[in-house]
Amino acid sequence: MANRPQIRTSNSALIAMIADEDTITGFLLAGVGNVDLRRKTNYLIVDSKTTVKQIEDAFKEFTTREDIAIVLISQYVANMIRFLVDSYNKPIPAILEIPSKDHPYDPAHDSVLSRVKYLFSAESVASGRR
Amino acid sequence: MQSSENGVESRNGVAESEQHILNFLDSVDSYLILMETLSSALRQGWLELASARHSMGASRVNSALFDLKSHHASTTVQVNDDLPQFKLCKWASSDDPEKYSEEAKFEEDELFQNKSDGPRHQHQELQEKRRDGGASPVGTDNQAQKERSKTLSMFGTLVSPKLRATQLSFETALEMLVEISNTRASLLHAYDQVQKDRTNTE
Q1: What does each C-alpha distance from B29 to B25, B40, B71, B124, B170 come to in angstroms?
Q2: Which of A18, A30, B33, B87 is least enclosed, having the fewest CB within 10 Å?
């Protein structure tokens, strides 16, 4: 039981976001914005001045906070930290890659579909037949 | 006698494996359909936001106006252990996050209870339920409206109708995202089952 993941039950949890300004604006209008007493937000606005390190730090922070259940990340931002996103395998928070205005959703880069695409590959079919 | 029993067990095992594969393929299909629908909802929202910015002015709709004072999110999710499952809770009072209006809870259970339906049919049913709405108590509607207005007020007292439309589009997108989270969880669960079946047969 030492390796049992921490799964929260039925308490309200936040939706975190790492995305461009317009996407964050839209979701804040939908009421998901949260600012705690230390003025820490549950979102990171990514623009031309945002560094990869800042994105990495935000991703690590959101995926380790216990009050966050879903992390939305624009797919083009996820591509900047692809190694980190693909190596994440906990059930909560759920990482969802979303499209942005200038970068439509590409299923080939989605980390969830990448994980399971092995089942559709020719090698997988061939090995099943042996 | 023993060989016929073994044969029956083997057939049941194969049938179960095939069911796991079907569940997995259904989940992948649902996931892709939902992502496509999400893209449409987001595009709609971005277009409406651009219209709002055009009519109100860029200085009135930008990230510099975001509320950075301490406040709770009005829209949150509830998680339970199974799979896990997520449930969206919209427009609770941001002053008291523990109080949720019953009308504001978005039920995700139908997605898993109606497993015999195809994913497209399930999605269509959910879309119809949203459109029909159902009767909502006046009190909970007022609560949701109050929270919506409070959120809009960070961009000023008088806002463009396009900004209200943006809010509704992103609310729809949020509902889809919660569905996608649940579909993702069932997809990964089905994948694990298929992998386990492959390992057992090798």
Answers
A1: 6, 17, 38, 14, 23
A2: B33
Instruction: Note the residue count of chain B.
Output: 202
Which candidate, B45, B51, B62, B40, places its Cα nearest to that of B161? Answer: B51
Task: Show Cβ contacts of residue A72 under 8 Å, excluding neighbours closer than 6 positions.
Answer: A15, A16, A17, A18, A19, A23, A27, A96, A98, B177
The letter for the amino acid at B153 is S
Q: Tokens 């409070």 belong to which residue?
A: B150
Cβ-Cβ contacts under 8 Å for B35 (sequence gap 6 or more): A105, A107, A110, B180
pLDDT tens per residue, range B14-43 = 888 899 999 999 999 999 999 999 999 999
**Given a cut of 80, is residue B185 above it in pLDDT?**
yes
Q: Do A10 and B78 touch (CB under 8 A)?
A: yes
Question: Which pLDDT value is given to residue B110?
Answer: 45
Smallest Cβ–Cβ distance between B79 and the set A37, A69, A113 belongs to: A69
- Report how far residue B94's alpha carbon sits from residue B71's, in angstroms, rounded to the nearest whole number: 7
Q: Do B77 and A99 touch (CB under 8 A)?
A: no
Look up residue B43 and give its two tokens.
């595009």
Who among A12, A23, A105 is closest to B76 (CB)?
A12
Q: What percent of chain B has pLDDT over 90?
A: 41
User: Which residue in chain B is spatially nearest to A108 when comparing CA positions?
Assistant: B32
**This prediction's pTM:** 0.80
Q: How far apart are CA B129 and CA B179, in angstroms?
A: 14
pLDDT of B94 higher than 50: yes
User: How is residue B177 written in tokens?
Assistant: 């995202």
Q: Report the residue of chain A nearest B48, measured CA to CA.
A: A26
User: Are B181 and A96 within 8 A, CB to CB?
Assistant: yes
